[in-house]
Specification:
124 residues, mainly alpha, 434 Repressor (Amino-terminal Domain), 2 domains, 6 helices
Length: 124
């Protein structure tokens, strides 16, 4: 079995879609598909993340040795960490939306200031 086949097998055993896996790893769905079809290979840091997210050993993922059922010492701890990662992704999305909103507000205020500054002075 190839690296891509092992990634697919582990992902399916963990009941994750390609989209869910890509979100947890911070990569595009196309990237996961390329890995799974052996069109490209993940870099070392992503291999380590794959190992943790999919609950398999890095050794099995890279070489195919050991079994896919091999789980971390504490499955509950892994699930808790995955939940925290999900929460962090949600917070990241909320932060990005808030930053865009604030940036828009600042731009609107800047436009208002520029209009006021360009008005002729009042004659009293």
């Amino acid at each position: 079995m190839t690296l891509g086949g092992r990634i697919t097998l582990a992902r399916e055993n963990y009941n994750l879609t390609e989209q869910q896996l890509s979100g947890r790893l911070g990569v595009m769905v196309k990237t996961v598909r390329n890995w799974e079809s052996d069109r490209s290979e993940p870099r070392g840091n992503k291999l380590a993340m794959l190992s943790g997210v999919l609950g398999v050993s890095l050794g099995w993922l890279v070489t195919g040795e050991n079994t896919v059922e091999e789980a971390p010492e504490s499955v509950e701890e892994t699930k808790t960490l995955q939940m925290k990662v999900g929460q962090l992704f949600a917070l990241h999305e909320q932060s990005a939306a808030l930053i865009q909103e604030i940036q828009s507000d600042v731009e609107n205020l800047q436009e208002q200031f520029e209009r006021v500054e360009s008005m002729p002075p009042d004659e009293n």
